[in-house]
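re: ur question from earlier - yeah i can do the single chain one, its not a big deal. heres the input i used so u can compare w yours
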Amino acid sequence: MELLPRSPAEFGSARYWDRFFRQRGQRPFEWYGAFPELCPVLHKYVRPRDKVLVVGCGNSELSEQMYDVGMCEDIVNIDISDAVIRQMRERSASTRPRMSYCLMDVLHMDFPDTHFQVVLDKGTLDALLTDEEEPTLAKADQMFAEISRVLQVGGRYLCVSLAQAHVLKKAVEYFSQEGWVVRVHQVASSRDKQQFVLPVFVYVMTKFRKIPGSAAQILEICPEEQDKPMRVGSVEQLVAAVKDRQHYTLLCSQISKSPCREQLSLDLCDKESGKPRYTLHVVDSPSVKPSRDNRFAIFIIPQGRETEWLFGTEEGRRQLAASAGFGRLLTVALHREQHYEGMASIQAELSGKVMELAPPGLPAQQQVPFLSVGGDIGVRAVRHCGSSPLSGEFVVEDVKGDDTCYFRRLIFLQNRNVVQSEARLLAPTALPGQKKRRKDKKKPSSTEPPGAIDKSYLCCEHHKAMVAGLCLLGGPDALPGELAVLVVGLGGGSLPLFVHDYFSQARVAVVEIDPSMLEVATRWFGFSQGDRMKVHVSNGLDYVAKLAAEAPAQYDAIMFDVDSKDLTVGMSCPPPAFVEKPFLQKVKTILKPEGVFVLNLVCRDAQLKESVLATLRDIFPLLYARRIQGEVNEILFCLPGPAGRRGPAELGARARALEGALRRPGRPWDSSYALAEVLQAVHIL
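and the output i got, formated as tokens:
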């Protein structure tokens, strides 16, 4: 039996609907939105004494069910199909005496003005507004004008819709411009029996008298999981919010039927502020043999550890899922702007939502475990929030590591998953939200959060490699006497501080373009200037160019650790201008003949990376590289002459000699600084 129309235009044809309902017979037809799902929304806006008009009623049971449960009895139903009106009159004549059915077109209604308190439309607008052609839009305007005419002030137009973008936009624009309050509800669906993959929405347009000259619009959205509406600023924002919910529903439908071939990422937002509260990644492990107890688990990433390789990269999360032994692992990262009470409250908050992302075949009542490291949600305390014209918004925060250590981090919020600078902390201090230890009780606990900066410790693996690159300096001694070092890019100051403190005769010049970073490094990371440490607030490009023109061959080592603010380029460190050939020639000019130029390169674009390496080879005859395990960083050691070439044995000997010279009584030396081991992975490009 062919029930679907031959063209969208037939949805507005009485002849089509007569044929449709004659062929379908007495069986009720619900396009979408069953009464049990719509009932919670309808109860909010339909009162028992209201006079209700249902437009395009068809043979839906919606009016009958509203009548039978006592929601409302004074209901008038209209439709353009004579066949369905006669059918529905017969069905309700003896059992629903106060409900009536009329053959009438919603575009030309015979009712007097302000006759109804509620107009209910279930799919009629969707059927009428099939495209954005002028004749179709004119029909929509005519329908809206008629609905507006028959509604009283304070009355509600309730439109049940799949909320295609052009349908929603047309309805919201029309009624908001008329001064009506517009609210969009997402209908909570019974997912086990859901007929349509797309979610169902109810537009609630409340009629107010239009105030001449007023341009104010009240637009709100009310997601299915909450009663409190969220205000949005424009029609475009409302349409976008609905589109986000449609995409989420489609995503849930897809991954409930088949495994994810790629890792999926989505944000769950705070109900009050609308800002991201949780970031979820769905990770499937095809190698895990499914059983009843290992199909699905939730992993809460401790606060402050979301940037670690295991949690912050696709490969890391893949290994985490495989080692956890679950077919599907949902990792959950917590956002720094949000407050969390603890694991139990997070579990209660997420338990309903995460089940929407469950894998295929998971029993409805299956208990899903929540996992974490050490069973807690970690510690994060934001110490400082700031903003600068050059770096944008940034935060300084203290976080707990994977043991009893605490770290201070600098994060640029435009790239919030990347730690710009990091330092280990030492002395105890109180983090917000933690109970203070009574002075007359126990000794200090090993879990108490520290505060003072440990200047002897390099947290970043790429900084350790950059320091190890000093073994490539020419000359007979592994530890040079006087050493002139130029560092471009200050950050928190850990790298120049380490060189200054451990190379006792080194003179360190630092170039930093952003004065805010100098303030942050000084106030929060223990950085300070002195006779052997000077910071020049300047553009690194200009500073190097000036030195090349005035005083060539003056630095033993030049280190670039500069991030790029342009996230559209496939290279986040350094900015492209720093690896252009004319500028690199100037870098070589200010480098001593036996010096070394050390560059932190972070480039995900393979073609761009090869171009950078080719340019470096043109300028520097000898090029060494050291990949940082688990990271995109690659440290490049560029020597101005071929005489600096050394084999593995000689490099290892120089590294051990330099390490021995740097180890001094009373000076901390971490085992991870094993310079010879760091240089073992160096290779010539």
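The two ends are 71 Å apart (CA to CA). not sure if urs matches, ping me
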